[in-house]
Amino acid sequence: MAPKRKPNKLSGTPDEQPSLDPLLASREMILVAGSGGVGKTTVAASLGLAAVQRQSGRVLVLTVDPARRLATALGLKAFGNAPHPIPNDVLEAAGLEPRGELHVAMLDTKAGWDELIRRHAPDAATREAVLANPLYENITSRFVHSHDYLAMEQLHDLHASGEYDLVIVDTPPSRNALAILDAPSRMAEFFGSRLLRWLTAPYRSRLFTFASKPFYQVADRILGSRFLQDVADFFVLFQKMEAGFVKRANEVEALLVDPRTAFVVVSTLEAAPAHEARFLAESLHERKMIVGAMVANRVLPSRLASTAAIEAANDLAERTGRDGDGMIAAAVAAATGNEHDTVDRVLHQMATRFDDLAMAAEHEVDRQTELAALAATTVVVPWLSGDIHDVRGLGRLACHLRGVADQADSS
Ligand SMILES: Nc1ncnc2c1ncn2[C@@H]1O[C@H](COP(=O)(O)OP(=O)(O)OP(=O)(O)O)[C@@H](O)[C@H]1O
Ligand SMILES: [Mg+2]
To answer: Which of 15, 17, 31, 42 has the most ligand 1 atoms within 8 A of CB, as the residue to mutate?
Structure first.
């Protein structure tokens, strides 16, 4: 028999949703952050749709590694990484009523690095030498949090271009959502690090010191004689760009605490992501960055945890299965024409499973309350059924973000 549980005291809280409209109207940059797989890319794209439905002006969504179907729906496959507009008739065909213009782009780390090198190289010779270095692409793509750094860079560029009224930036999949905040300072620190000094110590003098000679001889034999030279060359040139990189990293950091910037922290209400979201929001507060809103995503309906539903499931569990009186199964078996024992087993399992689901929904209600304390606004987005990889699906999610979920149901 299913153990009887007391319904959570918050059960039945109506999931009345506040709206992100005021946030979208009052900021110029929004960073969508959270732990891996919680729905950042989906929420970022939906926020773009929400913004252009609410307000006029140009809105850009910079996505990172969108799912293939989402990329196709947004035309990212066809247009590559350059920002491009989504024609209003595409939005209208999906039942939306845009007032502004939606543009989308995809983060391209290779193009981003090329751009950085072009910008920061002190002269044409350095620029060409870095770009032609055979290890350039390999090394830059291996910089830890390269994605995070470039996402921040692009935010800076896109905002500075003045072409958009609002830039919404999705953030890279990361095991640690805080990495994005530390990326600019890590880049600046790298220039002062012992590692860089070691990497740039003149290759030839190292080669011929007594202690290191055997090492380099072996390395040359195994890796080819140019390999360590190319590594050293790359970092010698890279070091020449220190001033530009450090200045830029400081500017990007300043942008993160700018009052025109706000973070939207996305989390599901499972234990681990919710814990990380909490940590992220607290870290943002500590760094004087603005947590504009929390989005509790893929949330179970709170009515699952309602007192009446839990009691009904408990009653059903008691009256079915081995210890049950068999009456309910008999009635259902008669009505459906199925075999009594099978019906009884199904009903009993459903009732006990429902209890599990209700328990999960109860935990979610608790976590939602905890997360709500960390931001002025918390919106709840249910676990949506059907396809949310196309514009119509994103539009449905946008309705939840805008607090007009009844419109999502009717679309
Ligand atoms: N409210 C929702 N209802 C149903 N499915 C959802 C919802 N939100 C997101 N999803 C689905 O969850 C999956 C993960 O979403 P998404 O790719 O946006 O997460 P992410 O945080 O960007 O992941 P990553 O950290 O890997 O970048 C996708 O398949 C997406 O369609
Ligand atoms: Mg993503």
So the answer is: 42
